[in-house]
Amino acid sequence: MNNIKYYNDSLAYDFSMFMPREEKKRDKDNIVKLPKSKKKSRAAARSVSSTLSALLISAVLLGLLCGNIYFRLKTNELNSKINQTKAQIEELKNEQTTLEVEIERKLSYSNIELEATEMGMRKRDNSQIKYIRVNQNNTAATGDGNTVNSND
């Protein structure tokens, strides 16, 4: 607006300045409108990316859960094999102990003595000792440590 005329002409008020202004019609060719589909595509891209990220997170969590279950199953299988092996070891130790007791029972002194008497054997006595006569120069040692000459 040109307000210089008011300073030159008069001091009266111009009430047109306070009136609502008329809007000028603009040329439609000057206005560039973006297609609404692009705005929707950005929103759609955001929703697709959020959906994809949610699906990716869900897939990772599902994979972790399945992996956890798989490793727990493998751990349980290995623990059961370990327990079976420990049971077999314990069984073999018991069998070994049983066999050792049986061997000791069969090889005990009283069983050997019993078997010997059943076969007709008896303990040694003085009647079973036989002396051997040798030449004069030769001597023999008895079981009690005495020396025997052929002259005796």
Give the CA-CA distance, first to last residue. Answer: 171 Å
Give me the side-by-side strand order of the main sheet: 1-2
Number of beta strands = 2
The proportion of strand residues reads under 5%
CA gyration radius, whole angstroms: 61 Å
Q: Can you write the helix and strand succession as a string?
A: HHHEE
User: What about the largest sheet?
Assistant: 2 strands, antiparallel
Mean pLDDT over all positions: 80
Would you give an account of this structure?
The protein is mostly helical and 152 residues long. The longest helix is centred in the middle third of the chain and has 71 residues, at 36-106. Strands 1-2 form a two-stranded antiparallel sheet. 57% of the residues lie in helices and 4% in strands. The mean pLDDT is 80.
Keywords:
152 residues; 2 strands; mainly alpha
Task: Detail the topology: elements first, then pairings.
Blueprint: H1 4-8, H2 36-106, H3 109-118, E1 139-141, E2 147-149
Antiparallel strand pairs: 1-2
Offer a concise description of the structure.
This protein has 152 residues and is mainly α.
